[in-house]
Amino acid sequence: xxxxxxxxxxxxxxxxxxxxxxxxxxxxxxxxxxxxxxxxxxxxxxxxxxxxxxxxxxxxxxxxxxxxxxxxxxxxxxxxxxxxxxxxxxxxxxxxxxxxxxxxxxxxxxxxxxxxxxxxxxxxxxxxxxxxxxxxxxxxxxxxxxxxxxxxxxxxxxxxxxxxxxxxxxxxxxxxxxxxxxxxxxxxxxxxxxxxxxxxxxxxxxxxxxxxxxxxxxxxxxxxxxxxxxxxxxxxxxxxxxxxxxxxxxxxxxxxxxxxxxxxxxxxxxxxxxxxxxxxxxxxxxxxxxxxxxxxxxxxxxxxxxxxxxxxxxxxxxxxxxxxxxxxxxxxxxxxxxxxxxxxxxxxxxxxxxxxxxxxxxxxxxxxxx
Length: 370
What we know:
The protein is an alpha/beta fold. It has helices at 14-24, 41-47, 76-80, 95-102, 121-131, 175-182, 195-200, 203-212, 216-224, 238-257, 265-273, 280-283, 287-290, 299-321, 327-340, 360-368, and strands at residues 3-7, 28-32, 49-52, 65-68, 71-72, 85-88, 111-114, 138-140, 147-152, 155-161, 166-167, 190-191. A six-stranded parallel beta sheet has the order 5-2-1-6-7-8. It has a four-stranded mixed beta sheet with strand order 4-3-10-9. The chain has a two-stranded parallel ribbon with strand order 11-12.
C-alpha cells in the first residue's frame, strides 16, 4: 500500500472524500489542510478520520463506514514527509502561492496530483519546480477531479466517481512515471496526450459558461428574493444547450490546431458518468448533475472567477496565437470580465508563464518533451 499525503479540503470536499476513500482502500493517508481551513482539523483529529455514508459505488474502495486516517497533521511539512503520492485540493487562485511554499517540503521523486477541473495546474507549477531545482517532482493534472462529494462535519457523502480520467504531466514523456505512482490509488487513471488535452478538455470550460450566461438574471432574482437556485435542474434550459454546442464547435478548432483529440461535451459526460446523449442539452439531464442540491444564487461568481482566467482566457489565447478566431469564447471573456469587474486578459497566468507561448508546432513539441 502507498503512503499518501492529502493536502487541503474546500467546500467541494474532494480532499476529505479522497482521504476517506484511500484509507478505506488500505493506504496510509496523512491528512492536513491549509491555514485558512484549519478549523476543520480539531473535529477530524478527535474522530480519527471521516465517516463515509451513501453509495459505495461512488468510491474506488467500494466501501463506506469509518475511514481511519494514518495521521491528522498540523502542517504540510509533517504530512509530506516521505509521501510518494500527494493529492492537493486548493483554491485555484492560490495554487502557485500554496504550492511554492511546499516545494522544499516535498519528498524526493514525489508525484503531486492536483484535484481540479483542469485549469492547467501542471503547466502552471512545473516552471516554479524547475526554477527551484526540483525536477525530481512531477505534477499531474486532469480535466476533472476523481470524486464529487458533500461534507457535514466529519461525515462525507460521495456523490460521484468519474471514470476514464486521463492525467497529463509536463512534459508528457513523464506520464508513465507518474502513473506508476498514481494507478495503485486510482486504477482507472490513464495517460492524456499532453497538458493541451487536459487543459482544453476542462469539464468546467465545457459546461459552466453556456449554463451561466442564460441564467444570470434568474440567479440574481433568486438572490434578491433570498432563496437558493437549482442550477443543474432549473438552469438546464434550451438556450444553454444551443450555446454549449456552439462553444464546443469552437473548442474543436483549437484542439485540432494543437493536435489534441476533441471530446464533445456529450461524450465527456458519457465517459465520466456513463450517461449517453447526443447534445449538450441532453447531456445536462444526466442523473449525477440532477442529484446536486440547489446552490447559493451567486455561486456563478465564484465559478466564473476561476473559469475566466484559468480556462476561458487560455483557450482564447491558444486559439488566437494559432490564427483561429473563437468569437464566442472571446465574447464570454469580455462579458464575464465586465460582470466580475476584472480585466479578463490580466487576471490570470499568461501563456508565457505556462510555457505555452509560440507557434502550435513549437508548443506541441515542448509539452510532449520532444
